[in-house]
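BUG: 3D viewer hangs when loading the predicted structure for this chain

Environment: internal workstation, default settings.
Expected: structure renders.
Actual: progress bar stalls at 90%.

Input used:
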Amino acid sequence: SNMPEAIANSNKLAVSLDITEVAAENAAESMQRLTSEIQEQKDITIEFQKELSILEKRLKETPKNALAEQKALKKEIVGLKDAIKDQNIAVKDLSNQRIKAIAVEKEAEKAAKETTKSYNDLNSTFEQVYGNLQPLTTRMGEAEDRLYELALAGNTAGQEYKDLLNSVANYRRTQIQTD
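Structure tokens produced before the viewer hung:
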């Protein structure tokens, strides 16, 4: 493995981390903006509903013979009802956008965690990443030592010898392909 390449990969991951953090911050800002807009639209809807209630009460109190006033109030009521419907649709739309922003935020957080884990894995020791598993070269050396002991004892026809020979061959193939 070549050191400049490892440093370049490490730098790419650091840039990736920064981009992921920015994405998460942008998602959080979008969430705050959407939450604020939803509340504002709900407040407007409530004001329209209060105004509608007042207009409906005024319509009930309007004398039956005041047709022009009744017609004007009915027209205002219809306009307010339409405005309330539009507000309700706007709130639903903003709520859907917020749900999507939450999903984006969760994906960004997940990507940040994965990128951080990947970054940490590259800077970790073999033991930190793989636990008790021995490095391939160590396992290959151990298997070769056992092969030598079996050969020294004259036991080259047994199944253990054949299995060890296959394991060593597999380890070497992996080593050659990787190097």
